[in-house]
Amino acid sequence: MPKLSDEHRDRRRRQILDAAMACFDRHGLHATTTDEIVAEAGLSAGAIYRYFDSKDAIIEAVAAERHARERSLLADALVGNDPRASLRSFLERYFDWLADPDEQRRRRVNVYVWAESLHNARLARVVAAGLASLDPSVEAARAAVRAGAFPPVLDAEPFVRVVLALLQGFVLQQCWDPTVDLQRYRATALATVDALLSVTTEA
Predict the structure, then answer these.
(1) I want to staple 23 with a disulfide (CB 3.0 to 4.6 A). Which of 14, 32, 183, 202 is the partner?
(2) Residue-wise pLDDT tens for the chain (203 aa)?
(3) pTM of the predicted structure, to 2 decimals
């Protein structure tokens, strides 16, 4: 049997994940069967199991892929010399990402993953690993405070969590109501962050 190229393997893996995403979006995680993913991908069951040993492994890959993209966006933001500009750029790029209709579909599946991780220890570890980027974000905010770029009264960890909540909260609202106005939410979220960075006294 000829050896498969890395490009072929990557393409086949992508085919399986896209098929799984379509099935999860239609039926949810629990109602989707491996046979449905096989049919959606147009591959044999053997081909699927060559890449993923179970449906749970596919779900984990979906979650890990989402976290990798988020970490990439964040890593790009953390290398900037202007913390305020870097934060705004991160938020702008994140909302650009959420404007993509395909990403909106993937985000609905991501909400299923969040819910499932509350009862699935293996998946919870994958989701928790995706939050590992919180620490460098908090340290970057603390460094910005020390440098005078952020207000001296700003509490770095809660600030980072509030920014994260603005994004996660919009993901949930967009899932519940696809007609929600992203651009208006985006403008308000950015204004909210600007207001937090303008605080000069303790609450």
Answers:
(1) 32
(2) 455 677 888 899 999 999 999 999 999 998 999 999 999 999 888 889 899 998 989 988 888 888 888 888 888 877 778 999 999 999 999 999 999 888 888 888 888 988 888 998 888 888 887 766 678 889 999 999 999 999 999 999 999 999 989 999 999 999 899 899 999 999 999 999 999 998 766 65
(3) 0.81
CA–CA separation, 14 and 152 (whole Å): 46
Q: What domains does the chain contain, in order, with CATH numbers? A: 1-53 (1.10.10.60), 55-196 (1.10.357.10)
Which residues fall within 8 angstroms of residue 44, CB to CB, at 6 or more apart? 38
Query: From the centroid of its chain, how far is CA 155?
Result: 24
